[in-house]
Amino acid sequence: MKTYLVTGGAGFIGSNYIHYMLGKYGNSIKIINVDALTYAGNPENLEAVKDHPGYEFVKADICDKEKIAAIFAENDIDFVIHFAAESHVDRSIDAPEVFVRTNVLGTLIMLNCARKAWEKEDGTYPIGKKFIHVSTDEVYGSLTGENTFFYETTPYDPRSPYSASKAGADMLVRSYMETYKFPANITNCSNNYGPYQFPEKLIPLIINNALLGKKLPVYGDGKYVRDWLYVLDHAKAIDLVTQKAALFETYNIGGKNEKQNIEIVKIILDTLLDMLPDDDSRKKHINHDLIAFVSDRKGHDRRYAIAPDKIKADLGWEPETMFAEGIRLTIAWYFENSAWMENVTSGDYQAYYEKMYK
Questions:
Q1: Which residues are catalytic?
Q2: pTM more than 0.90
Q3: DSSP readout, 292-333?
């Protein structure tokens, strides 16, 4: 039985990954989910697996080296899947020190604890141990031109405190692979969407506001381009990198779904109208007039686009879910889980929303 230490597993991507892995491997793996349960870490995301015999939850901050070291000491960890991170650009502009602490210092502590647990006296590591560092395409900066893409060889050019902190974390992992021959891979993904995503991010924000008949805030002219990756496809890619990728390799994971933000908003509105039954009262107030352009984000990158050529060539992975299908799956999930949305948008979320989009 392989044991996975998943950091940030109560967050959006981490919880989807855990659901996927337990669904695929069942009782043949053990997952230890370490999460500090900040605003974006939600135990409800894993309610369906909380009693699974292969699942264990530990509430801990990845910056608490004593707690992290104890987890390694008490368990024979085979794989670390490192999702835990502060991830929202707007929040990083408001409180950059939080992002540096979690994303840089937290990653360093994870690396040190894994190295101490795994490294043998001769400086080598047991076969089968691996650290997967999950990062972002935002470390590459902003693209110019329509036919340009981010490759694994693209120079880093972070433009926000968030992307700078993730770039710093990536560099730490690279340095450990080079200096200590530490067994690791780095993945850089494009924008994820799907179930359990906290509604400060574009897609769940628009879905929720539209269903409530609230204005739909769109930054600037709305023509910022992102590549959208369905979260289940991302989980499959990470599993493949864990099982089959050669050590020390970096892989870009993209959805081949480039769209402007304003396109995303209009697609969501049109899909909601198509999916809602005619007798649903919410259907009456959903229209394009809800779109409200707001003051632009500071340092807003114009376009991100990932070329996932390497992961396809090396591992045979490519995205399975195109946006038209993925957005319907996502909306259907939010329809079926309205109580989840109500819970996460209460309390502090309202104060944050007013601050960001006033």
A1: 137-138, 162
A2: yes
A3: EEEPPPTT---B--B--HHHHHHH-------HHHHHHHHHHH
